[in-house]
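Q&A log
Question type: sequence-to-structure
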Amino acid sequence: MRKPMIDVAEGRFVDAHGRHVVLRGLNLGGDCKIPYPDGGTHLPSDFADHRSVSFVGRPFPLPEADDHFARIASWGFNCLRFLVTWEAIEHEGPGCYDTDYLEYVAALCRRAAAHRFVIFIDFHQDVWSRMTGGDGAPGWVFEAVGLDFTRFDAAGAAHVMQRRYDYSSGEGRQESRYPMMSWSRNYRLPANGILWTAFFAGATLTPHWTAGGVNVQGFLQRHYLGAMAALAKRLADIPEVIGFDTLNEPSLGFIGQRMSEPQLAADRDCPIPVRAGPCWTPFAALRAAAGEPVELPVLGAGEGGMQIVGSQIANPEGVSIWLPGVEDPFERAGAWTREGGAARVRDEDFFRRTGGRAIDPDADLVLPFHHAVAATIRNVCPDWLVFAEANPYQFTHGRGFAKGMPARTVNASHWYDVDILWRKSFDPAADRAALSERYRAEMAMLFDTGAIEGAPRLLGEFGIPYDLDGGRSFARWAAGERGEAVWDAHAAALGAMYDAIDALLLNSTQWTYTASNRNDLRIGDGWNQEDLSVYSADQVENGDGARGRSGFARPYVERAQGVIRAMRFDSASGRFEAEIDVDPAIAAPSEIVLPEAWFPGEIVVSGAECRFDGERRRLIVAARARGLLSIAVEPATGKDAKGESTIRYARA
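Response status: OK
Response body:
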């Protein structure tokens, strides 16, 4: 039996030779959430065509693939978190798979493999679906479970850009109508609460709620996993595809919340952040979904946190989002009642306890799902790894993965500097060392809290918005400025993040590479005005389309003839250092990525055990004895400076 191209051992990725491997890559890509070519949220849509859309062409048309893959490889990346959505595969209807799309993804993965990329597939979602303000599930799911998505906006059940944005206006940002980053608020709105609760806890809480002749949870998970299996079968013969993500940043809906108690701060039971604005409870959400106007408390920032500062009426027209004749399954199950003409709670702990005991969402609901994903993909290819995710907010409240995760699982958690993400501002003069240390501490806490025994740690998402400070860099570019200085803030922030990643020896896939990106506050990555792409077609005239290249195209040890003990890069001096605990029984050499962004021109190699592969930009180091090997690479200086770099290595 052949060895997997990439496997796990003692908390590390290893290759077929037994070398310690660092996966460093990109998410591909930010616009895979939307149909091609006209699915961007900067274009109006009522989603009426949801059964006939196509995602063939996302992340880019096949004839353009080699150019994009060559560009990404030239920056030193070796891994792709390849985005697909359930909708892209099964949009036409239950069990109707888009074979053109499946073949397109397979063809792209083969092209990526030819460029030496390792690939894992991310079944992506944000706030459930495009019809609920994000991406993921196909539109027919709503009808199947008894919901009418065309009424969500009128009922206040979902906050969707295509329903709120004034497309006739020339204004890019419309903060009064559609505030930036507001899509994430959907996790606390009725549609998301209902659907995520059904997905993870339908069998537990609403046993009489059926779809397609089975319980709603079984129906939803069966189709989700069926779409995953359909794609898996197309990719099974590509060794460079090493596994599948479980589900991007899943929510648990109403699970953990009290029925009618307003939540003023996130907590362990319900860790989704609480923002200023209307405060929904499950009781209010279910009443509004059933067509009842509801009065919601309005939260505002006060001393010590959020406090109630007013109230407002949601769903004033009394629009029901349930299809005619559909009874609210939560009401039927005993959560609440309208008997006697007035709505009242029947079970305040309906979403917290069942059968006389507290619900443990991680062990009772999410763990079985992770095992179902593992079984689904390994039924196709036993070698595949499981890249596990949980709700990213739960780690800050002390909740990690449940014990008993599938064998050969990767901890693929996400981390962002939420201050930069929400404020879209960063000072490039910030104390780099202090910032790197803060990032290191936060990332360490994330993986320590969410530790999975024996699992490699891969930071599945991190990154920075490129539309910082109202698009300051875009304006500088439009005014004719060129060079790295245009992106100084982005490069500084990303450099600090990679400093922390190096210090912790993490694997990582940065968010994101979006081929359709534009330097336009209205467009960005084409989805809800986000703009985190390291590439934009507007920058191609500068050479390769990179934005802030010096922040992400950095040296690192890609494969070690033994175990990597440390690596550090000083962007001020251009010096890279690494320490490898050499195992001479491993026949293959260490390989260190030296991107041209930091090491232009010829690489001068001194020592019989080193050589430089200029085509692949790899320093090859073959050791012959056991021990700690120290390697330093730095730009040449003084009389030897010819745009060259020098390498020094020694045994500690």
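Response note: Residues 225 and 376 are 7 Å apart (CA to CA).
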